[in-house]
Amino acid sequence: MPTRSSRIVGALGLLALAGPLAACGSESEAAAPLSNVSGSSADSHPEWKQYTFTIGDNGGDGSQELAKITGVFDNAPYKVKFARFTYGPPLVQAAASGDIDLGSVGDVPPITGAAKEYGFKVVAVNRSLRPDQANENIIVPKGSTLKSLADLRGRKLAVPQGSSAHGLALNALKSVGLGPKDVKLVFLDPAAGATAFNTGKVDAWSIWNPQSAIAVKNGARILAKGLPPIDQTSSYYVASEKSLNDRTKRAALTDVLKRLAHEFAWAVKHEDRYAEAISKEEGIPLADAKASLETFETRVTPVEKTDIAAEQKLADAFLEAGQITKTVDVASITDNLLPAGYDSSKLVVTP
């Protein structure tokens, strides 16, 4: 059997694993108000000292760099590290196997993961502060003759399989009376999708920001925006079922989630620093990070009945389209870590 680390790197597509976080110099000083966001300390929770939590990072939102900038985990009575993934499905699989403890993904990976009977739970929602801004789109290259979704009939549409962009593609096609059999879905991870799109090997691409925003900046055109009713603007935190079932570890993991929520609440009020974090983490120009910044601004809340209903509708659509083979009961994979009424947009952070 392969070791845990080799499973992550080889099978799950882990790109980078950062060590325990420690802010330093001016960054730590600038973010001092976040150094004790939850009131927990090593003294009040000595039992947490034994834990190292791995946070799955799906890319794009700058969470790893923000943790360094804000120092949000500096006084935590446990250690944290970040595991980087190219997109959501491998992250959900990692949560199920216990290779990560917590991570944020789009709306589809929990569905495809549940269909494969992975052992994880949806524990919170990253709810967009700008629900009129699409975080993902279906785009066509510069000069494309395609003018509408209906024009995709018989064409090649690149999609990261099992991702939120996969859900956008299905619902967008369904909105004009098309299904997976009417187009040629080309399942490619984001990097391969970018190559295929830029070299004309596919006719369209369903993809999120910053890739979508960068492509549009370079001349691509949006064929369909990822907005209701064909797409959600929320994403979801998933956690390892094994961690959740341990009472002490569950309490500590709740603390981890609240610190992440505080981190993003700070980022929304410090947009320049937020853009810098995204730029550095994604390796993209600052201007490109700023172009997609609004779509990353979120608030963390518990999972609500409306979220479960939206996810159930999406799960049923995936089953109907033959993209999964097992019925998914979304309520059964939901386990809120946060108390009712929790809303990170109401957190007090330094202006």
Automatic annotation (TrEMBL):
<dbReference type="InterPro" id="IPR001638">
    <property type="entry name" value="Solute-binding_3/MltF_N"/>
</dbReference>
<keyword id="KW-0732">Signal</keyword>
<keyword id="KW-0813">Transport</keyword>
<dbReference type="Pfam" id="PF09084">
    <property type="entry name" value="NMT1"/>
</dbReference>
<protein>
    <submittedName>
        <fullName>Aliphatic sulfonate ABC transporter substrate-binding protein</fullName>
    </submittedName>
</protein>
<feature type="signal peptide">
    <location>
        <begin position="1"/>
        <end position="23"/>
    </location>
</feature>
<feature type="domain" description="Solute-binding protein family 3/N-terminal">
    <location>
        <begin position="52"/>
        <end position="285"/>
    </location>
</feature>
<comment type="similarity">
    <text>Belongs to the bacterial solute-binding protein SsuA/TauA family.</text>
</comment>
<dbReference type="InterPro" id="IPR015168">
    <property type="entry name" value="SsuA/THI5"/>
</dbReference>
<dbReference type="InterPro" id="IPR010067">
    <property type="entry name" value="ABC_SsuA_sub-bd"/>
</dbReference>
